[in-house]
Amino acid sequence: MTEPTTGWFGDWYLIEKILPGIYGLGEPKYYQVNWNYLVVGEERALLFDTGPGVRDITPVVQSLTDKPVTALLSHLHFDHTGNFHRFADTALADLPVLRACEWDGLFHAPDEMFLGSVDGLTWTPMPIRQWWPIGHCIDLGGAVLEILATPGHSPESISLLDRKRLILFAADFLYLGNLYGQIPGASLPDYLTAAKALAPELGDDVLILGAHGKPLPDGTHIAPRLGRPDLGDLIAGLNAIRDGKMPPVSQNPDHYRLNDRIALLAGPESYGIWR
Ligand SMILES: [Zn+2]
Predict the structure, then answer these.
(1) Kind of pairing between the strands at 90-93 and 45-48
(2) How many Å lie between the centroid of ligand 1 and the Cα of residue 135?
(3) CATH code of the domain covering residue 157
């Protein structure tokens, strides 16, 4: 893996060239430090998540590719979906929980899935051009991304796997810092089931790119990178929580330390069938 090279686009977006045709579009000045990802193939490009919408992301995308771009959401939370309405070609995972939000030709995310009321935000209804089933391989021309269901953080959460280049775009399923399992819709049993299903899909050398980052010790930012051991620690931690063998380090929300880079937050509703 080459050294990260980053550059600012204006004063808001930080662009990182992760590999040829794979860019992280970071928003380090946003309080949740979101990272969106642009994958450019020979024929098409895909933007995975569109940020909180504090600033328009489309000029950033246009600066990196002149190929037709499809915007795909990892899930509906407000900090990942803000610019979605700015894209003509929109895609979502073909899940019943998402299909239920479409009527009169427009997609309407309910606030219990968007959670935008936290920041005084409302969803902008827009048409969905493409519904892609779980397991679908998005062929961009020389770059293929497979859609994997990774619920837990939210029921509709998906990740993308580039099997050739061994990269998992994990969105909010796995990132640096506190994983949010304490919010409405989150489920620790689902988290564990999804993590266990994901593990055999990934080789030891997989690069996992998450959707929230943290500053480096010198205050600069790069796309949040995790690896196979972090997924192993997530599984081990969830198993231990289920079995009552991992006490939280603090409560309300219950805060579990999974390793020195990741922790998991949980609330009364998160435990589901475990309690
Ligand atoms: Zn989220």
Answers:
(1) unpaired
(2) 21
(3) 3.60.15.10
